[in-house]
Amino acid sequence: MIKIKVDRLTKIFGPRPEQALKMLAQGASNADVREKTGHAVGIADVSFEVREGELLVVMGLSGSGKSTLIRCLNRLNEPNRGHIYVDGEDITIYNREQLLKFRQHKISMVFQHFALFPHRTVADNAAYGLEIQDVAPDERRRRAEEALELVGLKGWGDNFPGQLSGGMQQRVGLARALAVNPDILLMDEAFSALDPLIRRDMQHEMVSLQERMKKTIVFITHDLDEALQIGDRIVLMKDGRVVQIGTPEEILNNPANAYVERFVENVDMSRVLTARSVLSRARVVAFPQDGPRTVLHKMTEENFGSILVVRRDYTLLGAISLERVSEAVKSGATSIEGLIEEAPAVSPDEPLMGIINVMAEWRYITPVIDAQSKLLGVVTRARLLTALAESGRETASAPDAEPGSAAA
Amino acid sequence: MSLLIPEIPKFPLAHLIDVALDWLTRHFSFITKALSHATSVAIDGVVAGLEWLPPWLLILAVATLAWRMAGRRVAILSAVGLLFLWNLRLWAPTLETITLVLMSTLIAVVIGLPLGIGAALSRRTARVVMPVLDFMQTMPAFVYLIPAIPFFGLGAVSASVATVIFSMPPAIRLTALGIRQVPADLIEAADAFGSSPRQKLFKVQLPMAVPTIMAGVNQTIMLALSMVVIAAMIGAGGLGGEVWKAIQRLEPGKGFESGIAIVILAMILDRITQRIGRRSQASAGK
C-alpha cells in the first residue's frame, strides 16, 4: 500500500518564485535560474512513492536538495508546486489547524544535530510531542519511558541532554519521535554526526527496531554505506532532481547514469577499504576472572568458535578457542588463565589487504584495537568477504585496487 | 552673511513639546494624579511596613534569601553591607531607595517582557519598538524628570515613573535578544512536533531565554538604582536625597557617606540578581 505519494514537487527559495517556476517548466538549469532570478532551486519536479512500512533512503551529496525534500514532507518547507499525498490526503492544501494535527499525530522527525531541548530532562524531551498534544502528565510520563526503553535509555530520564554522549542524545531524539507513535518517521541525516562505530551500532538497531515497528521511514543520508545498510529502496538525488530510484542491488548493479556510477564507485573505494569500515561490535567477550563454564556458556549461546578475552576496561588480552574451553570444563579447571592464546590484532586503519593476510594464519575473528590496546570491535570473515565482493565489482574499472585482486 | 541668507526662523521644537505636554496635562493629568495618589500610598505603605520591622530581622531575611539564591559569599556580603548601612544611621533612606528600585523594576519588567517578546516575534513590532528604545536610552536621564512633575507631582511617584522609562530598555532588548538567540534547529524541532506559536513560546523560546532575560533584569535594576538617586532632585528621598542634601549644604563627608551607601546597595543588588541569572543558565544545561 502506498503511504506517501510525492507528485512533481518543486521548492524555490526566495521572495518571488513565479518566474523561476516558469523557467524550470521550460527546462532551465538551476544555475540559469539563479543567474536570471537570484532564486535558489531547492528541489525540482520530484516524484516518488513510499510504501507502508518501508524504509526509504534519500541519498545525495550536500546541496542535492534532500534536506529540502524531507522538510517539504511535513511542510517545514512550503513547496511552491506539486502535491504530497499521505494516506491519499493532499497535505499541501491543509490549513494551519490541520497541519498542526498532522504534525502532532502522524509524522515526526529526527534531526542531524539532535535538536534536543537543553532545558528539559531526557524524559521531558521524549515527552515533548505528547505535551503538545495535551496528553495527561501520567500517561505522558509512561509513554515517554516506554519510548526511552525502546531505544535502550531506560533509567536515563532524569538526566539532562548535555550530560549524555552524542550517540545517547540521538537515541533521545529517536525516543522523542517514537513517543507520539507516528505512522511516519522522517530522519534527517540522523546518524551523520555520530562517530563511525556508534553510527554502525545505531544503523543495526534502527534495522531491528524497524523490524518490530514497521513504521514508514524516510531516511536522508549522504553516505552510500549507510543507504545500502538500512534502505529497502534508495532515491538518489542530484541538483534537486531524482536521478535514480531502486533497491540497493539495482543501484549497485545498474547505475542509471554516469553520476550514479561515480557516486557508487567513489563512496565504495574510499570507505570500504580499511578495517574501520568492516568493523562490527564485539557483542560478547570473556573476562579473565570468568570460569571455564561461563565462557563455554557465552560461546555456545553465540555459536562462537572462539572468544576474545579482555580486561574490564576492554584492554585485549587474547583469545580462547572452543576446543580448549571444552577440554578445560571436562578436566574440571576453575580458571581460564592458562587457556588464553595471543590473538593477532589490527588497527582500525589497517587496509583490508592486511587483514586478509592475518586471517590466512588465524582461524577466528580478528580483533581491532586502538593505540592503547583497547578492543574497538572485530572483523568477521563474513563481513570482510561481503565488503570485498562489493568493491570487487569496481576493480574492473579501477585497475589499482589491490584488495580485489588479493581476494581472487 | 546675514545680508545674503534670509533669516530662517528657529524651528519651535521646545514650544511644540510644551504645547503637547500642556494639552496632555490639562486633559489627562486627573488620571495620572489619581494614579499618582494611589501609587504614593502604596509606596509609603511598603516603606512604612519595612520600617516597622526591626532592621536585624530584615537583614537576616535578605541574607537568607541571598544564601538560597546566590550562595554563601553573597549572603555574607549582603549581611555585612546592610549592617554597615544600619550603623551609618542610613536605614530609613536605604529602605526608601530599595522600595523605589524594586517597584520600578517590577513595573519595567511587567511592561518590558511582553514588549520584548513582541519585538522578537514580529518584525513590525521590532521596527517600532527599537528606535523608541534608542531614543529612551540616549535621552539624558534628567529630562524625564521635568514632564513627570506636572503629571505626577513632586515626589516618589514622579521619580518611579521616570525610573521605569529610563530602566526599561534593557528588559525589552535582552528579552528580544534571548528569544531570537534560540537556535534555529530547536525552533524547527518544536515546529516539527506540531507546536502552536504559543506552545513554542512558553515551552521552548521563553525557558531558553531565561538567562538572557535575567541579565536584562539585572541591568534594569542597576539603571533603576542610578535613576532613583538622580530623582532625588524632584524629591524622591532615599539615599539620593541624602546626597542631594549634602550637595546643598556643602558637606563632603556626608555626601561620600551616602554615596558609599549607594555603592554598597548596588553591589548587593547586582550580586544577587547576577547569580540568579547564572543559576538559571546552569540549570538550562549546556
Describe what this molecule looks like in 3D:
The complex is a heterodimer of chains A (408) and B (286). Chain A contains 17 helices and 14 strands. Chain A has helices at 18-25, 30-37, 66-73, 96-105, 122-126, 128-132, 137-150, 166-179, 196-213, 224-230, 248-253, 258-271, 292-302, 322-330, 352-361, 381-395, 402-407; strands at residues 2-13, 40-51, 55-59, 81-86, 89-90, 107-110, 184-188, 216-221, 233-238, 241-246, 306-310, 316-321, 366-369, 375-379. In chain A, a hairpin with a 5-residue loop joins β11 (306-310) and β12. Chain B contains 11 helices and no strands. In chain B, 41% of the residues are buried. The interface between A and B is medium-sized, with 30 and 22 residues.
Brief rundown of the structure:
The complex is a heterodimer of chains A (408) and B (286). In chain A, 41% of the residues lie in helices and 21% in strands.
Features:
A: 408 residues, alpha/beta, six-stranded mixed sheet, four-stranded antiparallel sheet, 17 helices, globular, disordered C terminus, B: 286 residues, mainly alpha, 11 helices
Fold blueprint:
The complex is a heterodimer of chains A (408) and B (286).
Chain A: E1 2-13, H1 18-25, H2 30-37, E2 40-51, E3 55-59, H3 66-73, E4 81-86, E5 89-90, H4 96-105, E6 107-110, H5 122-126, H6 128-132, H7 137-150, H8 166-179, E7 184-188, H9 196-213, E8 216-221, H10 224-230, E9 233-238, E10 241-246, H11 248-253, H12 258-271, H13 292-302, E11 306-310, E12 316-321, H14 322-330, H15 352-361, E13 366-369, E14 375-379, H16 381-395, H17 402-407
Parallel strand pairs in A: 3-8, 3-9, 6-7, 7-8
Antiparallel strand pairs in A: 1-2, 1-4, 4-5, 9-10, 11-12, 13-14
Helix pairs in contact in A: 1-2, 7-8, 13-14
Chain B: H1 13-52, H2 55-70, H3 72-87, H4 91-121, H5 123-138, H6 141-152, H7 156-180, H8 184-192, H9 197-230, H10 238-249, H11 252-283
